[in-house]
Amino acid sequence: MAFDRYHSSASSLLLTLTVPKNRRIIDLNNVPLVSGTSYVKWHLPSSASAEHRGRTSKEAIREHKVAWEYTKVLPVRLTIDRSGMLQESEIHFEVMQEYSSGARGERIILGNVRLNLAEYVDAGEDGDGTITRRYLMQDSKINSTLKIGIAMHLLEGDRNFSAYVHIA
Hints:
Distance between the termini: 32 Å
Radius of gyration: 18 Å
């Protein structure tokens, strides 16, 4: 098991760690409207690869809640700095809502959630290593929470790194 090695312009050595990410978008609650549909778009801003972006299906809002049970598994490459600390790797989720307004449909952004994937490496609580949490949406005028489960495990490379421990 070997690391890929990259040299930055400051000639510091960066080591790369590859981990598969199992991401589940489970549900959204406290939706203020009782009709329409909702979906979640997600992407890794640090990657231009098409496999590092996607979206859930459009699901109906029922009793101020939307359920998806969307699962996606894909490899993600994280970088380890000289001090042995995993570097941040963000994932963005954007919650969209569609509804009919008279003769035409409307689409609005309900809010978004930004997470640092480095905080999830080998930090799972369930038997499969998944951390499942509800996140209050950011840039939102409503108090809806998005329930997301993330599991990350080392695929290749040494386990000589320190991961973030900010998850509570």
